[in-house]
Amino acid sequence: MDTHIVKVIKAVYITHDVKCFTVEKPAGFDFIPGQATEVSVNLPLWKNQLRPFTFTCLREQDYLEFMIKIYRDHQGVTNMLGRTNAGAELILHDVFGAIQYKGPGVFIAGGAGITPFISIFRDLYHKNRIEGNSLIYSNKTSEDVIMQDELQEMLKDNFIKLFTRENVLGFRGRRIDRSYLIDHISDFGQHFYVCGPTEFVKSITKDLMELGASIDIIVIEM
């Protein structure tokens, strides 16, 4: 297993519970947009506590970036990362991941499941190849949306946001379910990219297949 000790260059919250880490990029280090690595904090009690996080930067950039949801109510790795700032060290391990761009299609994300798609969208936008792709992004509330302005700029009208618990007068929550897919997708022969909580991915994958999408055009993390 390859490991790299890298210094945190910058660590800032970009939502109320998502922290963006910019870290050093080891010489020769590479990844495919959508891929991830296991990360640990380089401290005696934490260096063997590995957790998977997705790269969100462009592969050409001279740094690496991760957007990590911090769970303050758990005494675990993300809680520790919430207290980790510039100057600290992280340990990066092997690169892995099944989520890679296969062609134009519909991206469906739940919560922090947007992170592998951010790198893919940034890469496509950088190469002027983002046309033909759309994003359906589900969160509990508008405060949970990660990188809303940039996603809107890249995808324009092909960026759809759904909120399941928005606490505003007159709001009606909507989830991504079979009924929603029928109402909003006309072509089930295109590529589908799905990422989010395990049950979210299972449910949407099942619905897509029942509506005619074949398993070989549905891209998920196995």
TrEMBL record:
Pfam families, A to Z: FAD_binding_8 (PF08022), NAD_binding_1 (PF00175)
Coiled coil feature spans: none
Lineage: Bacteria, Pseudomonadati, Bacteroidota, Flavobacteriia, Flavobacteriales
Protein name: Ferredoxin-NADP reductase
Family annotation (InterPro entries): FAD-bd_8, FAD-bd_FR_type, FNR_nucleotide-bd, MRET, OxRdtase_FAD/NAD-bd, Riboflavin_synthase-like_b-brl
Domain (FAD-binding FR-type): residue spans on this chain: 1-102
Domain of life according to the entry: Bacteria
GO MF annotations in UniProt: oxidoreductase activity
